[in-house]
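Please check this chain.
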Amino acid sequence: MDRAGSTVQASSPTTVLIGVLVVFFLLQRLLEVFGGAPGTFALAWPLSENPWTLVTSVFVHRRLPHLVPNALFLFVIGIILERRTDPWRFYAFFVVVGIIAGVMEVTVAQVLGQPVAVLGASGAVFGLLGYILSGNPITDAVADRLSVDPRVAILVMIGVALAITWLTRGRQVALVAHFTGLVLGLVAGRAHVLRSSRSRTRTSTERRRF
């Protein structure tokens, strides 16, 4: 094969992240088998006590019924979104939103006097969902045709986030993390923070032409 004419297919950020989720799941299970603490990777208050859990809590799941739905939703949403962004933006968004969502969950619980430990990728996955809902071409087209007060737009996004979060309610479900991830995703989608460098350049060029 002619090397000059060949192309290398880059790894899918979505499948890479799912692979990381599986590795952390197996590692968590292995630690439990050998007597490790179940909450080794979980995020809990005070945040400064085990700072590494800010990141590890985003990726670890203790049970398959927790891992599988998150992995499936990540696959469906991620495959769509990763084509519109750069891998590093995708990874950074997933981790940062997941961290903020987890921090909000344990902080609110602490303030309410009901300390919890949180783990799982659902906050980050809900962030990706929110991004797709608000950053897609259809939403852009509708927003361009409507003159809406920014305060109204914020209230609408919060209302959408509350409605979707309510639909996911259940026993031991991190609703605050889900809500936080959705709001961050909705806001980021309107700002198009994941738009790739090439897309930004192309959009800027097209605007200068008109």
